[in-house]
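User: Reviewer 2 asked us to show a designed sequence for the structure in our supplementary figure. I'm pasting the structure tokens here. Could you produce the per-position amino acids so we can include them in the response letter?
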């Protein structure tokens, strides 16, 4: 029975390591990037940015797939939040896989699961961006989908957040179609209002700005689900897509016109997006750094990652943090299984040898008595 005990210990150790410890071990390799310039370094903003968790709903995927992969997303996020203790966390859309397919009751359960998985200590905001799987592509967007996303996750088409004097503009990419629809018109009006707000931050002594109290100005940071316009990942300085796919405007990326409008109204200094499920660092059409964040889910990417950004009002530095690869877990369990087989084989060999020795002794006894 010793070999069964040994196998139990091996499997238990593999289980504890893979399910509770491995995320911490892998994420220990990541560090907050440091800004070398001295100004504002004493109190920079530290932002953790992830994308496309795609929580499964009632219609797609096997329940075991949902259970196991979401368990690992939860473990990875909780390990990351404890290790890095960010000031803010952004999730860049496609929080749900079936957000535009479920009833209101099912959506409430979706939101409950999401907030439970991505739970943060008090005082650390979780800012959730709308994606096409949350409210539908432009052709499918409906006031019902939009209003419930806004009410449950406190995020409208366009929002301005100011944290530690850093300005973030969060945008619903599907409302950037520019076709005069209700959602597009509302988003463009909100963008113009934010543009005026930023202008008054920059020029507080102008007559139209004098009576309004504003934060100090710094160029905003753009966060949305779709990347700004690019033809493909061939434009990336770094990327991890397994193959190059040509991108379609308004489907894979924003249109040229929408990208130019954002540049003209907001004059951002940095941009983050998701949607493609693969990492990309590029200098985009606006001439600024843009990071497309890989999917946070094993279901979309076997080697997921997220971004760590250290930001001050006049500078920033961004690094990619690789998460626990799916294959590492599979290999660990496979190794534990092989080790168990070796132990069992070794014990069986010993048993066979003992029986052979016993039979030889018995044979000798019989010969002696004869």
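Assistant: Here is a per-position design you can include in the supplement:
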């Amino acid at each position: 029975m010793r070999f069964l005990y040994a196998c139990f210990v091996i499997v238990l150790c593999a289980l504890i390591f893979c399910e509770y410890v491995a995320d911490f071990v892998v994420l220990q390799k990541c560090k907050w990037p440091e800004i070398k310039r001295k100004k504002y370094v004493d109190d920079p903003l530290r932002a953790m940015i992830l994308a496309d968790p795609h929580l499964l709903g009632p219609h797609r995927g096997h329940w075991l797939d949902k259970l196991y992969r979401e368990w690992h997303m939860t473990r990875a996020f909780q390990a990351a939040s404890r290790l890095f203790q960010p000031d803010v966390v952004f999730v860049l859309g496609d929080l749900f896989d079936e957000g535009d397919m479920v009833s209101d009751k099912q959506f409430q359960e979706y939101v409950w699961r999401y907030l439970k998985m991505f739970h943060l200590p008090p005082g650390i905001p979780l800012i959730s961006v709308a994606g096409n799987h949350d409210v539908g592509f432009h052709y499918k967007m409906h006031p019902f989908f939009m209003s419930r996303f806004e009410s449950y996750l406190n995020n409208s088409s366009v929002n301005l957040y100011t944290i530690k004097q850093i300005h973030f503009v969060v945008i619903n990419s599907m409302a950037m179609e520019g076709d005069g629809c209700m959602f597009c018109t509302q988003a463009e009006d909100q963008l113009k209002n934010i543009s005026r707000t930023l202008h008054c931050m920059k020029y507080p002594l102008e007559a139209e700005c004098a009576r309004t109290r504003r934060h100090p100005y710094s160029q905003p940071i753009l966060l949305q689900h779709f990347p700004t316009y690019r033809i493909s990942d061939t434009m990336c300085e770094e990327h991890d897509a397994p193959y190059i796919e040509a991108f379609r405007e308004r489907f894979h990326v924003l249109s040229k016109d929408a990208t130019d409008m954002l540049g003209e109204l907001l004059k951002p200094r940095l941009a983050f997006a998701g949607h493609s499920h693969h990492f990309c660092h590029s200098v985009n059409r606006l001439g600024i750094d843009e990071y497309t964040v890989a999917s946070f889910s094993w279901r979309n990417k076997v080697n997921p990652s997220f971004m760590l950004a250290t930001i001050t009002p006049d500078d920033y530095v961004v690094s990619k943090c690789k998460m626990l690869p799916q294959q590492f877990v599979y290999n660990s369990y496979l190794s534990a299984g092989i080790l168990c087989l070796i132990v069992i084989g070794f014990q069986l060999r010993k048993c066979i040898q003992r029986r052979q020795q016993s039979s030889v002794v018995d044979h000798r006894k019989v010969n002696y008595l004869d």
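For the response letter, you might also mention the following. The first strand starts at residue 45 and ends at 50. The chain has one domain: 32-326.
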